[in-house]
Amino acid sequence: MAYLFSFGHGFSARAFARRLLGQGWSVAGTTRSAAKAARLRAEGVTPVIWPGDGDPAPFIDRATHVLISAAPTASGDPVLAEWRDALARRAAAGHIEWLGYLSTTGVYGDHGGGWVDEATPPAPTTARARLRVEAEADWQRLAQQTGLPLHIFRLAGIYGPGRGPFAKLLSGKARRIIKPGQVFSRIHVNDIAGVLHASVRCPNPGAIYNLCDDDPAPPQEVIAHAAALLGLPPPPEEDFATAEMPPMARSFYADSKRVRNDRIKTELGVVLEYPTYRAGLAALLRQEGLDNRQGRG
N or C: which end of the chain has fewer CB within 10 A? Predict the structure, then answer.
């Protein structure tokens, strides 16, 4: 029986698991709290509280597929730090059919709004992205040593149900920060799940894939479009140079690039459910029951 174990069973992993559970898979995943564990259990996922009193070892021993979405820290990748040997033994015995590592397109760094693809050398500009580059390299070394069927997925900005611009607009917390030439790529969480599922069906160990839609755009443009969908005025424009922002928020504007996604289409046959942010936001508007607001001021 196909068995997925995911380290860091969060937003993207939950969307992926819903597809697998519908096909009869068994799924278990780690979470950090009892409250989140209860939510996962209600979704049909066996929760393991880790770090904590849960023990991932029995689940690693059962897993045919493994997903890593736990973020690295300054001390390195937390999964490799504790479970490298267990994964290596399982891989060397040929029992792991697929392992996916969720990284970020932030590894490419800043390209002044230019295009990047999977052949573009990593050139991280932030501490978070540098940690991802190091973690990718650590996983690649383990794969070379053990035959672990590693697949790296570099994710653009993620949005989806409960995670998007609508809540910020309705709470009055949305901002339109203007930095000339700034452009981001993004992806709907359902399309992340679709790409992971396609990779499971057609594994290619060693592959790296960019996960993004077809429509990179300035962030203020996305906020303005979301406001129009809600029938709200867009937030006022703020100059990035003078806007008051916490360091973490400001760091997201360090890079400007457009990310190509050709490989997920040509190698995996992926057809994006939401190829543009406009399509994705229109679907979220209906899904979150906000479409009856349209036209209100």
Answer: C
